[in-house]
Design goal:
The protein is mostly helical and about 190 residues long. The protein is built from four helices and no strands.
Length: about 190
């Protein structure tokens, strides 16, 4: 505003000193400047109005985006809560499974020890059975031979070869695995008078 007054005063002083034409020129220039200022002001108002409209649209878009993101955030927080619960449940399941594994490992170790003892006992019993079987085979052979000798002695006694029959019976009596009862019976038989 002061600038205009100063310019007007300057033009008035200049106009009084000179002819009208330069003053008219200054006035013309001022009018042109005023018109240009009004035009720029109108352009600025149009730009400001479009910018204000853009800002209002952007603001509503940002508010809508914030609301959407807030609702999505709420949903995500709910999902995170559910996942945390699932993680806790799975952690508890893992701890229980680890405990079960430890217990079953102990049971497996105990069963492996029991199996080892059973296998050792089985080996010992197999060896003992083999020894018993060998002893049985030996007794069976000896008893078979004794029965054969008795059969021969009975047959010889029937043919009255008493001496040979007595020798066969004595041979049977001295067998290692002949039962004591059989030895007594043979002994009493031999003590009889032929």
């Amino acid at each position: 505003m002061r600038v205009r007054a100063f310019v007007f005063l300057f033009l008035a002083v200049t106009a009084s000193a000179s002819t009208v034409t330069p003053v008219q020129k200054v006035i013309q220039m001022l009018e042109d400047m005023a018109a240009k200022g009004k035009k720029e002001m109108q352009e600025e108002q149009v730009r400001f109005a479009s910018f204000a409209q853009f800002c209002k649209g952007a603001e509503s878009e940002k508010v809508r985006s914030i609301e959407e993101n807030t609702s999505q955030l709420g949903e995500l927080e709910g999902e995170i809560g559910a996942l945390n619960l699932e993680i806790d449940e799975l952690s508890a399941s893992i701890k229980k499974a680890d405990s079960d594994i430890a217990n079953l490992g102990k049971k497996i170790a105990a069963l492996a020890e029991a199996m080892s003892q059973i296998e050792n006992q089985e080996e010992e019993l197999t060896e003992e059975r083999k020894e018993d079987h060998a002893l049985f085979e030996k007794k069976d052979t000896d008893l078979g031979e004794s029965v054969n000798a008795l059969d021969r002695a009975v047959a010889e006694m029937k043919t009255q070869d008493v001496e040979h029959a007595q020798a066969s019976l004595l041979e049977v009596m001295h067998k290692r695995y002949v039962p004591e009862k059989a030895k007594r019976v043979i002994g009493s038989f031999l003590q009889r008078d032929p």
